[in-house]
Specification:
There is one protein chain. This protein is an alpha+beta fold. About 55% of the residues lie in helices and about 10% in strands. It is built from 18 helices and eleven strands. The strands form three sheets. A six-stranded mixed β-sheet has the order 2-1-9-3-4-5, sandwiched between helices. Strand 10 and strand 11 form a beta hairpin. Helix 1 packs antiparallel against helix 2, helix 4 runs antiparallel to helix 5 and helix 13 crosses helix 15. The longest helix has 18 residues. It is elongated and about 85 Å long. It starts with a helix and ends in a 20-residue tail after the last strand.
C-alpha cells in the first residue's frame, strides 16, 4: 500500500475528508476510489459516495475478498445515511462474516453495528436487542465503541430504560472524546440533551404537565391507570390493553380520562368522537353502542358508568387516572418524528419504518407538504423528503415500536 493511501486513510479516521481528498482526489485505482467514496460520504454527498464505492468494489474483483467486503460495509453505511432501508441485510451479513474470517474485527463490528442501526430505524427493537447482545465491543477503536454505545443507548431510550441509556451515553461520550471525531461528539451530546427535553405531556385531573423521559418511565411504572395516547392504549403497571386499531373507542377513552375525576357530557363526547356540533338521536344511539364496546374492552382495568349528564371513567381499586399525550398532536406525528432526524427519507423507507403502504405515506406527505411542514427534493425514485427539526422536545415516544408491550 502506498504512502498516499495510508495518509488518506488516517485522515479519514479522524474525520478529515478534505485532507484525504487532497492526497487521492485524482486517482482512479480501487483503493483510492474506496477512500474517495468514504470522503464524499463524510462530506454528505451520498449518491457520489455510493457510486465511487461500487466502482471500487468492482475494481477489486473476486480475488480481493477482504477489500470488496470493506466496500460493501462502507456502501451499507452510506445507504443507511440515505435512509435507503429496502435492501436485503444478507449482503451485509455476508460481508461481516468475510471480514471476521480474515481477522478484520473492526470492520466486521462496523458491519454488525450498521445492521443494528438499520433495525432501530425500522423499529425492530427485539431484533436490535438480540443483535447487540451478540456483539463483543471490548478492545474496539474508540470511534466504534462510541457507535456501539450509542446504539445501546437508543435501544434503551426507545424501551424507556433511561438509567441504562444514561450510562451508555456516558460511555459513548468518553469513547467519542478519545476518538476526537467532532461529528461523533456532537451526536452523543445531542442524545444526552434529549434526556433533558420534554418527551410527552400528562393530563391529570384537568392539569397538563410536560414530562421528561425519566418521568414518563416513572408514570408508567406507577400504580396509576394511564391512557397512553402515544401508543393508543391503556396501561396499569404491567397490564396493557391496546386500542390502536379501534380509534373511536380510544377517542372516547381519552375524552373520559381527560375529564376524570368528573364525568363528561354526552354532547361533548359526540362532538369529540363523531365530529358534529348538531347531535341527533342517531348519534346518541351510536354513542351508547360505542360506550358498551368500550366497557367490554377496558373492563379488567376500569369501568364506564352512566351519570345524569353523560359518562365517567372509574379506575379499578381506587387508582388515579392520567393521560399520557405525545409532545405534538396530529395523525402524522410519527411521520414528522422520523423526518425530524434531519436525514432525507424516501417514501419507501418511511413506509417500511411505519408499517404502512407507500400509497398511504405518499398521501400523508402530500398533505404535510401543502401545510409547509415537509419538503421534497429530487424526482421519481430519487425523490427524498425532509422536514425541519422538531426543536424543544424529543420525539422518542413517537418513533415506530417505541414503548413495546411486555
Amino acid at each position: 500500500m502506498d504512502s498516499l493511501i495510508v495518509a488518506a486513510g488516517r485522515a479519514l479516521a479522524v474525520g478529515d475528508a478534505l485532507g484525504a481528498l487532497d492526497r487521492i482526489a485524482l486517482r482512479d485505482d480501487p483503493p483510492a476510489l474506496a477512500l474517495r467514496g468514504i470522503a464524499m460520504a463524510q462530506l454528505g454527498d451520498y449518491p457520489r459516495a455510493r457510486e465511487l464505492l461500487r466502482r471500487a468494489a468492482r475494481g477489486f474483483g473476486a480475488r480481493e475478498a477482504l477489500a470488496r467486503a470493506r466496500c460493501v460495509v462502507a456502501e451499507a453505511e452510506v445507504a443507511l445515511a440515505m435512509r435507503d432501508l429496502g435492501g436485503s441485510p444478507k449482503l451485509l451479513a455476508d460481508a461481516a462474516a468475510a471480514l471476521e474470517t480474515r481477522n478484520d474485527r473492526a470492520n466486521a463490528m462496523q458491519a454488525r453495528l450498521i445492521a443494528v442501526r438499520r433495525q432501530l430505524l425500522l423499529g425492530r427493537l427485539d431484533e436490535a436487542a438480540a443483535s447487540l447482545a451478540g456483539l463483543d465491543a471490548s478492545g474496539l477503536p474508540p470511534s466504534l465503541a462510541a457507535v456501539a454505545e450509542l446504539a445501546t443507548a437508543e435501544l434503551a431510550l426507545r424501551s424507556l430504560r433511561t438509567a441504562v441509556a444514561r450510562a451508555a451515553l456516558a460511555r459513548a461520550f468518553e469513547a467519542a472524546r478519545r476518538a476526537r471525531v467532532p461529528a461523533l461528539i456532537a451526536e452523543v451530546a445531542e442524545a444526552q440533551a434529549a434526556l433533558e427535553r420534554c418527551a410527552a405531556r400528562t393530563i391529570h385531573a384537568g392539569h397538563e404537565q410536560p414530562l421528561r423521559l425519566d418521568q414518563v418511565e416513572a408514570l408508567l411504572a406507577s400504580d396509576a391507570l394511564v391512557v397512553d395516547a402515544c401508543r393508543r392504549g391503556l396501561r396499569v403497571g404491567d397490564h396493557w390493553q391496546s386500542l390502536a386499531r379501534r380509534p373511536v373507542l380510544f377517542a372516547l377513552l381519552c375524552a373520559l380520562a381527560e375529564g376524570w375525576p368528573g364525568d363528561v357530557e354526552r354532547n361533548a363526547l359526540i362532538a369529540r368522537v363523531f365530529r358534529t356540533r348538531h347531535p341527533d338521536e342517531t348519534h346518541r344511539a351510536r354513542l351508547r353502542v360505542e360506550i358498551g364496546r368500550l366497557r367490554a374492552s377496558v373492563a379488567p382495568m376500569a369501568a364506564i358508568e352512566a351519570t345524569a349528564r353523560g359518562f365517567e371513567l372509574v379506575a379499578r381499586e381506587g387508582r388515579t387516572v392520567a393521560v399520557l399525550m405525545p409532545p405534538i398532536d396530529g395523525d402524522q406525528a410519527s411521520l414528522l418524528a422520523l423526518l425530524g432526524d434531519g436525514a432525507a427519507w424516501s417514501t419507501s423507507a418511511l413506509a417500511l419504518a411505519l408499517g404502512d403502504s407507500q400509497r398511504t405515506v405518499q398521501r400523508a406527505l402530500v398533505e404535510l407538504e401543502a401545510a409547509a411542514q415537509v419538503r421534497s427534493i429530487g424526482h421519481a425514485r430519487a425523490q427524498r423528503w425532509l422536514a425541519p427539526p422538531l426543536v424543544g422536545f424529543t420525539t422518542i415516544l413517537l418513533l415506530p415500536a417505541a414503548l413495546p408491550p411486555e
